[in-house]
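Subgroup meeting minutes
Present: P.N., E.W., G.H.
Scribe: E.W.

1. P.N. recapped why we're keeping a running log of single-chain structure predictions: easier to compare across weeks, and new members can see raw inputs and outputs side by side.
2. G.H. added today's entry (83 aa).
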Amino acid sequence: MTRTDLVVLLPNNQKVTSSTHKGQEFVYVLEGTLTLVHNDEEYNLESGDSFHMDSMTPHTWFNHTNEAVKLLYVYSISSNVIH
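Output recorded in log:
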């Protein structure tokens, strides 16, 4: 099952520990600067930037700027329901 969310990260979020989980993630930055930590490498993504990854790779993302970050978050989630 795939979900899509519009996410707003308020200014000055704290960096959290990287995590892993089953699934895939796609993020498209609409406004602001998002910091992505992927495999212990840190990247700053600006408006118009995006990334896709296997969620089993250690990762986290956050906003350490003084402005809000708005992003589109598309991700797969486990579902035990058979259609």
